[in-house]
Amino acid sequence: MGFILTLNESVKGKKLTCDYRVSEAIEKLMALLETLDHWIDETPPVDQPSRFGNKAFRTWYAKLDQEAENLVSTVIPSQLSAAVPEVAVYLKESVGNSTRIDYGTGHEAAFAAFLFCLCKIGVLQGDDQLAIVFKVFNRYLEVMRKLQKTYRMEPAGSQGVWGLDDFQFLPFIWGSAQLVDHSTLEPRHFVDERVVNENHKDYMFLECIQFITQVRLISFQ
């Protein structure tokens, strides 16, 4: 909770497109996520009778399961290599369940734990905070949304009225912090399609709203 709230403070009132420091560790994490994205392209959905839970996800996940420690080793310096096996578990847990072919906020929490571990062992520093949210976590969201759409993943433990999104929770926390004391955007604008389309690249909260309207045939009106 302290980690999440610390990052929340760092992004208050700031746009996704603002200037921030991008360290070597951040660049390595971006390369890791790019690899996961590339594997989705290499593993197309298979033809199957059921609409949801495409079994090709298990093939994709098996590759991650096999390569997770190697991927994490590209981010963690050799002198800290003893941490790799444990940190890699959080990465594997952050992308969904290969048996149920589902994804939910618990998996998202595992990615937060993955980033937290990297901070605790000193791979990520205090001045990486903006990049952790705006660059790494935002890219993680993009990859997870691609997984959800490509493999038609079920929401894990969907709680219906408890959240706007079946899959994500953290971007609503950090995304709302971005909008604190905003001079023009107000809650009433979140249901305005024009406002969402014009501002989603700057604000994580509005990016979430846009994604929901794209994948679910609902109206907030």
N- to C-terminal distance: 33 Å
Proportion of residues in β-strands:
under 5%
Strand order of the biggest β-sheet: 1-2
Poorly predicted regions = none
What string, H for helix and E for strand, traces the elements in order? HHHHEHHEHHH
Radius of gyration: 18 Å
List the domain count as a whole number: 1
Q: Biggest sheet: strands, sense, closure? A: 2 strands, parallel
Average pLDDT number: 92
Q: Count the strands?
A: 2
Structural class: mainly alpha
The helix content, as a percent range, equals: 55-70%
Secondary structure tally, helices: 9
Overall shape: globular
Function: PPIases accelerate the folding of proteins. It catalyzes the cis-trans isomerization of proline imidic peptide bonds in oligopeptides.
Catalytic activity: [protein]-peptidylproline (omega=180) = [protein]-peptidylproline (omega=0)
EC number: 5.2.1.8
Subcellular location: Cytoplasm
SSE layout and pairings?
Layout (H helix, E strand, L loop, with lengths): L1 H10 L12 H19 L13 H18 L10 H10 L8 E2 L1 H16 L8 H22 L3 E2 L14 H9 L14 H7 L4 H12 L6
Helix pairs in contact: 1-6, 1-7, 2-3, 2-6, 3-4, 4-5, 7-9, 8-9
Structure overview:
This protein starts with a helix and ends in a 6-residue tail after the last helix. The protein contains nine helices and two strands. It has one domain (2-167). It is mostly helical and 221 residues long.
Which structural traits does this protein have?
mainly alpha, two-stranded parallel sheet, 9 helices, 2% strand, isomerase, Phstyr_phstse_ac, PTPA_C_lid
